[in-house]
Amino acid sequence: MHVLITGGAGFIGSHLVDLHLARGDKVHVVDDLSTGSRSNLAHHEGNGNLRFDEADILTWQYLDRAVAWADRIYNLAAVVGVYRVIAEPTKVLAVNIAACERLLRAAREGGWQPQVVLASSSEVYGHNDEDILHEEQDLVVSSRAGTRWGYSVSKIADEALGLSYAQRFGIPAVVARFFNTVGPRQIGRYGMVVPRFVAQAVRNEPITVFGGGLQTRSFCDVRDTVVALDAVATSTGRDTVVCNVGNDREISILELAQLVIERAGSRSTIEHVALREAYGEDFEDIRRRRPSLARLRTLTHFQHRYSLERTIDDLIAIE
Ligand code: NAD
């Protein structure tokens, strides 16, 4: 199979590269290295099945050719991370929506209709304070416009674009709503909680919990995420589908901090930082986030292989 991965030098993208190269597929990565890094792909140096182009999806002149070559395209290129989303709100909208549109247009004009896998996000569900799972049908545009709503809107727009190209032009689309993804190669400087906690615990520095820490998340190891994503794309073939991709074990941020301290055998204490102080402006955090995996399980035989404890242990070993 020929696989094009935009954002393939990033955290999730580089693990997708690993998966497809291990299978013998030919992989073409296009990445502007704004948050990704060549070092994420360094272990594939010399592999003739991997081609890398440093380019911005918005302006790259060879996008049409790369799209025409591909059987499957993963669109992961995006401006991500809470800090960047707060600092560069218009860039988030401009890059995330325009990159998706440009890619879909190239797929439409190429004649051959590659399968397009779009990286969406649990953020499309907005705020959810109830004890309910996020079902794929649940999408409601929340009126509670939070600071990172621009990012959510960009993902909602990408989904709408993908689904409309699928309907109008027969381009099969997989809309994958990633929930919090964690694991090797994720960097903490854009606000990602797990790598930050691990780095603090290993150095015996205070673990900084933003807000009360009672907000919950469901963390999925990236090595599971990419297997699940490929399984969904493979099972749907020429059909179009919207599917949550994540892990439904829910944990509060305070429990996460305690777990990281315990696994690291750390002397770190826990320090609470007000949300305003952490993010530099008023910030209403999402209280609960947990995916329904019903559709993932209906479509695939996917089973998680990495517990949160295993992921944390692996990160501690790397740190
Ligand atoms: P990442 O920052 O590691 O990956 C994004 C990649 O896209 C980077 O390598 C970056 O350099 C590249 N990129 C950005 N703009 C580009 C452009 N204009 N042209 C070419 N390349 C560009 O982040 P990630 O966590 O791997 O995220 C991958 C995708 O998954 C994103 O679309 C993100 O919105 C989505 N997502 C991630 C999570 C998560 O928990 N990590 C959750 C939900 C959704």
Order of helices and strands: EHEEHEHHEHEEHEEEHEEHEHHH
- The strand order across the widest sheet is 3-2-1-4-5-6-11
The CATH architecture name of the domain at 2-179 and 222-245 and 292-299 reads 3-Layer(aba) Sandwich
Largest sheet: 7 strands, parallel
Q: Looking at the structure, what is the overall shape? A: globular
Low confidence ranges: none
The span between the termini is: 35 Å
- Percent strand equals 15-25%
Cofactors, ions, other ligands: nicotinamide-adenine-dinucleotide
**What is the radius of gyration?**
19 Å
Give the name of the CATH superfamily of the domain at 2-179 and 222-245 and 292-299.
NAD(P)-binding Rossmann-like Domain
As for the CATH topology of the domain at 2-179 and 222-245 and 292-299, it is Rossmann fold
Fraction of residues in H or I helices: 25-40%
The computed structural class is alpha/beta
Number of strands: 13
Q: What is the CATH first-level class name of the domain at 2-179 and 222-245 and 292-299?
A: Alpha Beta
**Could you tell me the mean pLDDT?**
92
Query: How many helices in DSSP terms?
Result: 11
